[in-house]
Amino acid sequence: MFKTDKFKGTLTSSDEGEMKWIDRNSLSDYTLVSDFMDLLKVFDSDFYSEFMYERNKSGEDWLIRLY
């Protein structure tokens, strides 16, 4: 995922999926991964710079951490 207000070049799709620009207001029209909105907070924030998964104390579940 990239954030920009200017782009020069060509987006190139791969075996992993299609690359295309979409309007942010249309995100709800797409099937997104479950943690996408948390990840987007990092892009929007002047405070956060990292998105990480950490195991909980029991080691059975993953927790999303923003730093």
UniProtKB/TrEMBL annotation:
It comes from the Bacteria. This is 8-oxo-dGTP diphosphatase. It comes from Clostridium homopropionicum DSM 5847.
